[in-house]
UniProtKB/TrEMBL annotation:
Record carries keyword Transferase: yes
Species the sequence originates in: Lentzea flaviverrucosa
InterPro entries named among the record's database cross-references: Beta-ketoacyl_synthase, Ketoacyl_synth_AS, Ketoacyl_synth_C, Ketoacyl_synth_N, PKS_Beta-ketoAc_synthase_dom, Thiolase-like
Protein name as annotated: 3-oxoacyl-[acyl-carrier-protein] synthase II
UniProt similarity note: Belongs to the thiolase-like superfamily. Beta-ketoacyl-ACP synthases family.
Keyword terms of this UniProt record: Transferase
Gene Ontology BP terms: fatty acid biosynthetic process
CDD domains given in the database record: KAS_I_II
Keyword Nucleus annotated: no
Domain Ketosynthase family 3 (KS3) intervals: 8-411
PANTHER family membership: BETA KETOACYL-ACYL CARRIER PROTEIN SYNTHASE, POLYKETIDE SYNTHASE-RELATED
Length: 412
């Protein structure tokens, strides 16, 4: 039976794993984001779609990374397990893995195994029901990444998936931190994964005007907060973070990257795709995350913005940040490099925020040439990374359906 360990007990990040368009591990992803090198390029997988560019994970060989069992996984699960493998190795000497009844997994996803569903629908249409793969359901369902991670490491605690659209990775991180504070587990792998660079998803997003149409200039297509932005670029990948209570981590000699100090989620309850125009519920999520940590807005040094490059969404978030934090806090969106990784975005950006706190480096926003008037009052980090100490960082994530999720990270 679980019990509240301590509402004030610090939860820390002791391991990070990433598979992103910026690189196949944490080191290369972080380096590319700090360099501001955009990853948008034409994608042969989208040849039948109106928008043919994406931010794709480069040179990903799942069998080489994970063994032959990777063939029984959707691409989003492959990303998740590979990221989890790196995170576990990075955390060093996690106790009890292999037979751990007290270890949990919380993974966020927006689309789950959409690639599997699309492929099998094509088989069904072309060759009939006998051609449908017998593992379609376990490969395609949204919990498959979480369960595959648990199976790989023998984790028998609470294992589940959350799906709050593009806020899912951040929601998962908050849920895992709560599970640790409530004593439901002693260690948790938390993150997000998506592999939604598919013809149907690209065509559907294009149908509602969400994607950039800079097909002749893909390198400049993903441009958060820029006056000339015209939509986001589809990305893919995963991030997994190892979370522990700080007392446990210190006892085993682990060196944390950052503390998870507070998180909060709200819902606009307004529209299927558009944010509530005033941003008041997104601002509420930010304020509640700060309040739960006992932190004032003026103490925060960096905000990793959700900013995807859509005209409406970026403008609303700029107003939220300005209203809550004023003009002094440093702000950037790493989606200028990675594109929008859907349900993985929040986990990846929380990882980047933890690294910003750990290394004292704030990454820039790629392709931010001329700030939108709504964002102009902000202290936007452009062109070059800023080498400056960051004690506290906020990472925002927002998703279709009005989901708002914020996490506050701090120095350990």
């Amino acid at each position: 039976m679980s019990r509240l360990v301590s509402a004030s007990e610090s939860v820390v990040i002791t391991g990070i794993g990433m598979i992103t368009p910026a690189g196949n591990n944490t080191t290369s992803s972080w380096a590319a984001v700090c360099d501001g090198t955009t990853r948008a390029a034409p994608d042969a997988r989208l040849a039948s779609s109106p928008v043919t560019l994406s931010c794709a994970v480069p040179d990903f060989d799942p069998v080489a990374l994970l063994g032959s069992g990777a063939r029984r996984m959707d691409r989003f699960t492959q990303f998740a397990v590979a990221a989890a493998q790196e995170a576990v190795e990075d955390s060093r000497h996690l106790p009890g893995f292999g037979v751990n009844l007290r270890a949990g997994v919380v993974m966020g996803t927006a689309f789950g195994g959409v690639g599997t569903w699309e492929e099998q629908a094509q088989r069904l249409a072309a060759r009939g029901s006998r051609a449908v793969h017998p593992l379609t359901v376990p490969m395609g369902i949204g919990n498959s990444a979480a369960s595959a991670i648990a199976a790989r490491f023998g984790l028998h605690g609470p294992v589940f998936a959350v799906t709050t659209a593009c806020a899912a990775g951040t929601t998962a991180l908050g849920a895992a931190a709560d599970a640790l504070r409530w004593g439901q587990c002693d260690v948790a792998l938390a993150g997000g994964a998506d592999a939604a660079v598919t013809p149907v998803v690209a065509s559907a997003f294009d149908k509602i005007g969400a994607l950039s149409r800079r097909l002749d200039h893909p390198g400049s297509a993903s441009r958060p907060f820029d006056r000339q932005r015209d939509g986001f670029v589809l990305g893919e990948g995963a991030a997994v973070l190892v979370l522990e209570r700080e007392s446990d981590a210190r006892a085993r000699g682990a060196v944390p990257y950052a503390r998870v100090l507070g998180h909060a989620s709200t819902c606009d309850a307004y529209h299927l795709t558009s944010p509530e125009p005033s941003g008041r519920f997104a601002a509420l999520a930010v304020r509640e995350a700060l309040d739960r940590a006992g932190v004032t807005a003026g103490e925060v040094g960096y905000v990793n913005a959700h900013a995807t490059g859509t005209p409406e969404g970026d403008a609303v978030e700029a107003r939220v940040i300005s209203e809550v934090f004023g003009a002094s806090v440093m702000v950037s969106s790493t989606k200028g490099v990675t594109g929008h990784m859907m349900g993985a975005a929040g986990a990846v950006e929380a990882a980047f925020s933890a690294l910003a706190v750990h290394h004292g480096i704030v990454p820039p926003t790629a392709n931010l040439d001329e700030p939108d008037p709504a964002a102009a009052p902000l202290n936007l980090v452009r062109e070059k990374a800023q080498h400056v100490g960051v004690e506290l960082a906020v990472s925002n994530s927002f998703g279709f359906g009005g989901h708002n999720s914020t996490v506050l990270l701090g120095k350990p």
